[in-house]
# Entry
Amino acid sequence: MDLTLDQISQAEVDTAKALLVSIIHADPQYANLDLRPGTALHDILLMPQAELWALANKRYDFIQMTKSFKDMVDSGQTIDPNYVNALLSNFNLEMLIGTKATGQVIIKVDKDREYTINAGFIFKTNQGLKFVTTREFSASQVPTGEQIKLYVSADGTYYYFIIDVVAENYGTNYLIAQGTNLDIESTLFNFISAEAYVTFTGAVPSETIADIITRLPVALSYRSMESTRSIEAMLTDPSYGNFTDIIALSVVGAGKSAQLRDKHNYIGGSMFGRVDIYPRTFATPVITTLLINGTKIGTNTYQLTITPEMAPGFYAIKTVTDAESVVNPVMSFDTLVPIGSYPFIETRGCIPVNTIPHDIIESNKLIETAYTKYQDTVIIVNNVTTPPLENHPFKVEIYTTPRLAEIQAYVDSPTVKNQTADCLVRAPLLCLVAIGLTVEKASTSTVTVEDIRNNLLNYINAKSFTEKLTQSEIIGQLYTLDIKYVDLSNDPIYGFRLRAQVRGADGSIKTMYGTNNPNMSILDVQDPSILITPDTTVFAIEPTDIFINLR
Amino acid sequence: MQINPDYTNRFFDIETAQTIVNPEGETRLTISLTNGQRVITGIQKLVQQYMIIFLTMVGDVKFNPEFGTLLLTSIIGGGVNTYGNLFSVFAVANLDTIKQILDGAAGMPDDEVIASAELLDLEIDTLGRKILFRIKITSVAGDSTEFIMPTSIVRS
# Structure
């Protein structure tokens, strides 16, 4: 710790000085030294020593504090992660560092030529949020090697290509919505415009010391695929699975109502040995964008296929649009159909059951493979009015669980696999929430809509595998900010509105409203036969689904 | 100046100004806590304490920011425009110094407690960029001493 005198307080020096005076005067040989301010002894002997002593005391206190996570939390100081990691090294652990928001940008240009975007190319929102490329992209109409495709717009008036970017800094304020206009800081000839092609995802706050205290019992537990805690430890430990992005985990085994696979017997009773693992590897819902060529199967109708490799275990389809479309569908309070999306019908299936190395029964394969890496999907898209080509590129946005396939591969690996259990990894069911509220801030408050949105975003996206999201929780969370009043009336515009929907494994949508019943509970829509239970479901919200009136 | 050689039951300080041969210009003080350093009590200690406080600029001591006076601050900062103005600045600094001495004087013998400090004369040397203050200090015990306090008005 680099301490300087600037970090020492007057009181600390005064305390050290008083102690030194009492020590010096306690010795009969020095009992008569005049150590008052204004004496030479005070200035050249006492003060330098008192300052050094205060410095040493502070350093000692700091070192003592960094030996205990509880003391670190109690101190209220911002602790350098190196000190946290030094203490965690005793347990063979490391502090989890947050991730930055990521997403895709669509760049529109007016000429057909090759385009190169270098690593470090900067895009900027009107609010000054910056996003950068982390590698070079080269786009061409006829891509070769690692080049990306330069598309022609449906009306033929411009060209476009899509690249990946990452936020310049950490923070959920970088979760910009699809369609957000972006300026470029670097030069790109023939540039027309740039927009967020998807709603950005992935901004996960760094682990706090309080989080570490919560994590330690799991982290220190016995490593094996035997119990909820040890499975979680096995998956997250850097020395084992190293899936440090798992922020919550539910293990559904014998006795849990959503465990259907251990009842494959004539009496339908639980026979143990079957485990479904639901890892939450994201905070804000992660939306993956697929560019899929649809095949025309009828007038204005196309068919698309999502194979297991394209999006292992994806949860639900958010939108299907033309490839160059940039829309921002939000969860409306009035309709289930996302505005801006083509109407589509989704039919899920799975790879042949006899090729799945897990216990799946043919008669219930749709449910039992749901949200696993073994499911596949056929989408029928209607009302496509763009040029009647046999193949048409579509942009399909889906909710995914990052690293799901990797986690499945890990638990299936011979060195990890529990020989007495069949572990199947599923994406958690997202109970997607929308909130509308009116907040009045205190007259001296500087709180902004973004502050409130980020606060709610972080709170709700941390609620995993729990029964309820209540109005009182949200109100309590709002009052951690400097606000005066929250409108709890049933006013359709300004009142408190809460809504959520969850997709069952059979494709049905269960919707919950919190307007009349402020305690929005998974138990109200629970149906283990389609995998909807508190053990399988997490609450999640996107920034665009928080509607705030701030007065 | 009267010398008091009796150190019995008295608090003493070390003497700092012994290396000043000529009370003009700038002189580096040599202070040692080991060999050859003299100790002082009584009015000599009082004079030394007065000088240290009087010539310290307020804010210069990091962990005693109110220690000292505004005398040098005023002079160096151009706040003293006339000869007469210097007297008023001295008067304020003198009062500040006396107050700070008295604040720590509890339990001290009478000859180490200041009763008054009087400006007898002052000389401004514009070419040498210094001011010489001739001051008379009187203790509560009644003994007094006069001394010249050289003050450089250029701060390096």
Observations:
- The mean pLDDT of chain A is 88.
- The first helix of chain A runs from residue 10 to 26.
- Residues 20 and 409 of chain A are 65 Å apart (CA to CA).
- The two ends of chain A are 45 Å apart (CA to CA).
